[in-house]
Design goal:
Elements lengths: L11 E8 L15 H5 L19 E10 L23 H6 L17 E7 L1 H4 L8 H6 L3 H7 L2 E7 L1 E4 L8 E4 L7 E2 L2 E2 H16 L5 E5 L5 H7 L5 E4 L46 E4 L5 H11 L2 E10 L10 H10 L4 E4 L2 H9 L9 E6 L2 E6 L8 E5 L5 E4 L7 E3 L2 E7 L9 E9 L5 E3 L3 E4 H7 L12 E2 L11 E7 L3 E9 L4 E10 L2 E7 L12 E9 L2 E9 L2
Parallel strand pairs: 2-3, 2-12, 2-13, 3-4, 4-9, 9-10, 10-11
Antiparallel strand pairs: 1-12, 5-6, 7-8, 14-15, 15-19, 16-17, 16-20, 18-19, 20-21, 20-22, 23-24, 24-27, 25-26, 25-28, 28-29
Length: 558
């Protein structure tokens, strides 16, 4: 294998070991002389040599994960524009996605690295001037095609924060929440904030993650219990604790892995005590800052074992995790017969656990009165995640009447009662999402509901018709001066797309024409109808198609 150094930077490592099944080599041995002739020789006899043993070497799987987030986030500003400079055309992420900055180190199959992008979301992004809880998803979704071609994958990075005065000194900040037990904070309980964020991802980004990493949050027992009904694979870079109580800022020992179970790579935590091996469903994959893990992975692979090494860094790190190249080169020289393979994190997990299932479940959604039934053709990791945008504009999670499925042959079904959510008159949006145990995810179509009237107007158990009229967040956002606005039409319609200022005055009409069904986009160059540059500030863009209309906000910053 040819090893070439790459520029760079990365940080941490997760390691997992499973023995491969060696296949004995067929040995052809020279014919042996007659033993009686040897015994009668007057000369000293050589020691009997054992036949050579051929060991099948293992593979070291390398997965580079990137915590993708905004640069320069200021914890003392409640509402701020998110710095997504790295995702702009010509910048770091663009260069990586277009192959200009993937390094030069290639694996045993002559492949460049793959990336697993852990996309940050949470309440600080919801409150930002971008007005987008999933602003990073919005920034990177334009590279979805390139990411797929490279074999990259996307996961969820979550900061469990809210804006509050933690120290009682009258000054509020974006603070890490020290609980996950329905404690009330200014913008909701700790559990509600997490469920709001995931519901937003499902409804607005059609995205349900199967890989998770906490951000500035140790996974206490209560958070661990919640995750166990959501995510099959947890790439944890913080040490497991039960209910952490330490002096000073209470996060001083979050990297201390001495409290972790012995030999736990990976492990199922206990529902009673998170740092014990137990009965929970998801798998935890440790990440650490110990480069010894790479050396030990190669040593194990040289004896026939397969190992998974997961590194992580941030999207604003110019090296994007490629400073592991010297470690790979060093071990390649020591263990020339060990194979190296770049993978995304899900591929690596499946390779180590010998998971061959790559097909997502087949899901159907039907209704009967005020209840909705979600059915799967196979067993799921957990019950489906019900995501609802209620008439008051709140993103919430809805749970089934029973988390245990009704099993009928190969069908698994859950019932959701939406009657409590329809007390208010208005439009709601609903979708269901989830994953099977192998990490094959699904998100149903988004359904538009006009209170109870729509529910009662259709025959029982008739499949719902999805609402596919959608206006996406502009990109980039904030922008200067150009931005792209994308939307989807379910059917042919006369489209009117216009930019409006915050006072409701028309700035410029971008589209006013009949358009076919499908994906469309338009560009705004930051100028008004008279071709004059407009000033910095918040602007609205409104899409009208037939009798439907959607409005979103965008931020021009000069």
């Amino acid at each position: 294998m040819t090893a070439r150094r790459a520029a760079a930077s990365a940080a941490t490592i997760c390691i997992l070991c499973v023995s491969s099944s060696p296949v004995p080599a067929q040995l052809i041995l020279p014919s042996q002389p007659d033993s009686s002739a040897l015994s009668s020789s007057p000369f000293p006899q050589p020691a009997t040599l054992a036949p050579p043993v051929h060991v099948r070497r293992g593979t070291v799987y390398i997965a580079i994960t990137i915590d993708a987030e905004a640069r320069s986030f200021v914890s003392s500003e409640r509402a701020q524009p998110l710095d997504l400079y790295d995702f702009a055309p010509g910048q770091l992420i663009d260069r990586v996605m277009n192959g200009l900055q993937r390094g030069s180190y290639r694996d045993s199959r002559d492949q460049l690295p793959k990336y697993t992008w852990m996309l940050l979301s949470g309440e600080p992004y919801c409150a930002s001037l971008n007005h987008d809880c999933a602003a990073v998803n919005s920034a990177i979704e334009h590279y979805a095609k390139q990411a797929s071609e490279w074999g990259d994958f996307f996961g969820w990075h979550y900061h469990n924060w809210d804006w509050y005065d933690r120290d009682g000194d009258g000054i509020a900040y974006w603070n890490q929440l020290l609980t996950f037990d329905s404690t009330q904070y200014p913008d909701g309980t700790d559990v509600q904030l997490a469920e709001k964020t995931l519901a937003y991802l499902v409804l607005e980004k059609h995205f349900y993650p199967v890989l998770f990493r906490s951000g500035w949050t140790w996974e206490s027992t209560s958070l661990s219990n919640w995750l166990d009904d959501v995510i099959p694979f947890d790439l944890s870079n913080f040490s497991p604790h039960r209910n952490l109580v330490v002096p000073a800022d209470r996060i001083a020992n979050m990297y201390d892995w001495r409290g972790a179970p012995v030999g736990w790579i990976p492990y199922h935590p206990s529902s009673a005590d998170y740092k014990r091996i137990g009965n929970m469903k998801r798998l935890i994959f440790r990440t650490s800052n110990d480069w010894y893990d790479i050396d030990s992975a190669f040593g194990a692979a040289d004896s026939g074992q397969n190992r998974l090494v997961i590194t992580y860094t941030h999207s604003y790190d110019d090296g994007l995790g490629l400073d592991i190249s010297p470690d790979l080169e060093r071990n390649e020289g020591r263990y020339p017969l060990v194979r190296i393979r770049f993978v995304n994190a899900l591929e690596g997990i499946r390779a180590i656990l010998r998971i061959t299932d790559t097909l997502p479940p087949t899901i159907s959604v039907t209704r009967a009165g005020d209840t909705f039934v979600v059915s799967s053709n196979e067993r799921l990791f957990s019950f489906p995640y019900g995501a609802l945008l209620d008439p008051e504009g709140h993103y919430v999670r809805i749970r089934p009447t029973s988390t245990r499925p009704v099993v009928n042959g190969s069908s698994y079904s859950w019932t959701y009662d939406l009657l409590p959510w329809f007390a208010s008159v208005g439009t709601s949006f609903l979708a269901f999402a989830g994953s099977d145990p192998a990490g094959n995810s699904f998100v149903t179509n988004r359904f538009q509901l006009d209170g109870r009237r729509m529910i009662s107007s259709r025959p029982a158990c008739e499949p719902l018709v999805p609402d596919e009229f959608d206006l996406r967040q502009n990109f980039p956002n904030p922008f200067n001066p150009n931005t792209v606005i994308s939307f989807n039409l379910r059917e042919q319609a006369t489209v009117h797309l216009a930019v409006i200022n915050i006072e409701g005055q028309l700035v410029k009409v971008l589209l006013d024409e009949a358009m076919a069904p499908g994906e469309h986009s338009a560009q705004w160059d930051g100028r008004n109808a008279y071709n004059q540059p407009v000033g910095s500030g918040v602007y609205l863009y409104r899409l009208q198609a037939g009798d439907k209309s959607i409005t979103r906000k965008m931020l021009l910053v000069k």
